[in-house]
Amino acid sequence: MIPLNTQHLTGILGLANQVEPKTKALPYLELDSMMLSQVVEIAQKVSQNDINRLHIQNWVRRKYLSKPYKKKYNREQVANILLINDLRNILPLEQISALLRFVNQDLPDQAGDRIHPAKLYRYYSDIFDRTRQDWEKMIGQLAAEVEDSLAPEDMREEDRSTAGVTLMILNLLARANVYKQIAGNWLEKMAGERNSPENSKEEG
């Protein structure tokens, strides 16, 4: 008897496989400019976060993005929109801004970029999509670990399956939380190093 029946496991893997590849946005980043409606459409295709024009207009008002030129966004602005949108349910906007400023000193101005946002997004999406290939393997391994843990339990098949799915969800959430904490601590460390007196003297 297995804790995750085929239907449940297929469903979980199906949800993972519904995630659109980030690289689907790359052809659009070859365009010189886009209207807001086009940017929203692209962001909706490659992100699990809901986004509309009000989100983007708010980011411009708060200076996380530069103002569009004649109501059109260039490829660098679009790349930053895609990155901010991917992260905004994980980090506060202030922290997202701080993270992007490590490579772009002034988000509204690309003149001093260490790497242009469109190129940063290209590398980010390529790495993300390559790691997607490991999802099915990881979920399969987790299902096997859940099955092994519940093996000694004398349970009805329905109860075993429900307990197995619950353990899967708990472990996926716990792993997501660990990754979030690691990234958050790393971000704080980088911010501390950037604001250290030594670095302030060097920049001065």
Percent helix, as a range, is 55-70%
* Series of H and E elements: HEHHEHHHHHH
Number of helices: 9
- Going by helix content, strand content and strand pairing, the class is mainly alpha
Return Rg in Å.
21 Å
Beta-strand fraction estimate:
under 5%
- Rounded to the nearest angstrom, the distance between the terminal CA atoms is 67 Å
Low-confidence spans: none
Number of strands: 2
Count of the separate structural domains: 1
Mean pLDDT score: 85
Main beta sheet: 2 strands, antiparallel
Strand order of the largest sheet: 1-2
Shape: elongated
Structural summary, described in words:
There is one protein chain. This protein has 204 residues and is mainly alpha-helical. It has one domain.
Question: Gist?
Answer:
With 204 residues, this protein is an all-alpha fold. It is built from 9 helices and 2 strands.
